[in-house]
Amino acid sequence: MRKGILFWSVITVLMLGFFLYLPFVGQVWAQEIPLTSDSYDHWSPQWSPDGNWIVYEKRDMTTHLQLYKIPSSGGTQIVLTSDSYYDHYLPQWSPDGNWIVYNKWGYDGYRQIYKVSSSGGTQIAMTSDSIDHYCPQWSPDGNWIVYDKRDVIGYQQIYKVSSSGGAEIPLTSGNYDNCLPQWSPDGNWIVYSKYVYPTHYYQIYKVQSSGGTETALTSDGFNHICPQWSPDGNWIVYMKEDATGYYKIYKVSTAGGTEIPLTTEGYCIRESPQWSPDGNWIVYHKYDETDNYQIYKVSSSGGTEILLTSDNYHNHYRPQWSPDGNWIVYQKWDATDYWQIYKVSSGVGVEEGEAVIRQDATGICVYPNPFTTVVSINFSNQFPVSSEKTNNRLCVYDLSGKIVMSFPITNNHYLLTPNISPGIYFFNIEGYKPLKVIKMR
């Protein structure tokens, strides 16, 4: 008799109580926030120095890549370039925020360096010869632009030009390819990747910004790509294809010496490392065990990799820190089937403690179906539901703070499909107290 009661009690719980609600006080992080959502592709987001704007390239109704900007809090996209028959891409803000430098590729077949006011207007050519120019970067004082350029004998060299225009000045020469230059924080050095013969690998080199002798910082039999200076100027971080055959994140002193791996786990690709403004973290995108590119961060001293995005969309690329270090902006291929611009908090996980809460989220009602594992979620009229706005989102997190799913609250009714495994989860709507949820089936 007792066995029969236990058996039916368990069945009752499984059929009538798919979710059990428990109280929770704290703050949930790692909500991805879309900044664009139209039917065009958006790439290469970059924060303005004051953190108020994000510039990017967009393939719009002209069918070409144009430069746009959008408030970092979201809002209306503002076009900065609009001429047809040209692609405009890889935008970079000037240190004072007044200008955007970029690559422009037109009908003549050559990629040139241009700049435009951050308010839009007339585009100003910085280069004009019949040779390709790539990857412009402003000097910290805003007086120079460095880039790589294919020379007359076919090799990539590092050049600079005054931000006011004028003669191009070569910083490297010889029968080697040099690419992806980056200024040191004090403006005295340029670091870059150099394809070295006869080893046939890219190594990290530096040269004075006034020109002179090149200094090798790495020299082993592996590729080293995308060097970035630390904010204090003492370290270079980069991606290295090591003995595993996969790219991992490494750093080396700007004086040279031993290379230090910051990531070591697994056979996964890690790319596009970027220092946080305080120098304590490195953000990058990683092709992980979910078969998706996600955004990760790791301490600049190495250690555990921390996941910042975790949905089932395949591609999260080119993360960039906000100037205050609180946000990461990136491009993501999402449910619109286009590349969109997103941002996510640089904090992650479930942080216990007090938070500013408007009210309990008691307006969430869950109705289990006793015949399936699909659960109906209804919202009461206390939530600001609108079919035209997507800034109010219901987010579901696991115990690590990893986001499991997220969707805008544009309707009063949703069906939660059974693709979430049993476990403990948190339901959260921004500004309301999260609910702790145990999924029992």
Give a description of the structure.
By secondary structure, the protein is mostly beta strands. The chain folds into two domains: 2-29 and 354-439, Immunoglobulin-like (Sandwich), CATH 2.60.40; 34-351, TolB, C-terminal domain (Neuraminidase). Helices cover 3% and strands 47% of the residues. It contains one helix and 38 strands.
In short:
The protein is mainly beta and 441 residues long. The protein has one helix at 2-16; strands spanning 19-22, 26-28, 33-34, 41-47, 53-59, 65-71, 78-79, 87-93, 99-105, 111-117, 124-125, 133-138, 144-150, 156-162, 169-170, 177-183, 189-196, 201-208, 215-216, 223-229, 235-241, 247-253, 260-261, 269-275, 281-287, 293-299, 306-307, 315-321, 327-333, 339-345, 350-352, 364-368, 375-379, 393-397, 403-408, 413-416, 423-429, 435-439. Helix content is 3%, strand content 47%.
Fill in the keyword field for this structure.
441 residues; mainly beta; Immunoglobulin-like; Neuraminidase; 5-stranded antiparallel β-sheet; 4-stranded antiparallel β-sheet; 1 helix; globular; disordered N terminus
Describe the secondary-structure layout:
Elements: H1 2-16, E1 19-22, E2 26-28, E3 33-34, E4 41-47, E5 53-59, E6 65-71, E7 78-79, E8 87-93, E9 99-105, E10 111-117, E11 124-125, E12 133-138, E13 144-150, E14 156-162, E15 169-170, E16 177-183, E17 189-196, E18 201-208, E19 215-216, E20 223-229, E21 235-241, E22 247-253, E23 260-261, E24 269-275, E25 281-287, E26 293-299, E27 306-307, E28 315-321, E29 327-333, E30 339-345, E31 350-352, E32 364-368, E33 375-379, E34 393-397, E35 403-408, E36 413-416, E37 423-429, E38 435-439
Antiparallel strand pairs: 1-38, 2-31, 3-30, 4-5, 5-6, 6-7, 8-9, 9-10, 10-11, 12-13, 13-14, 14-15, 16-17, 17-18, 18-19, 20-21, 21-22, 22-23, 24-25, 25-26, 26-27, 28-29, 29-30, 32-33, 33-36, 34-35, 34-37, 37-38
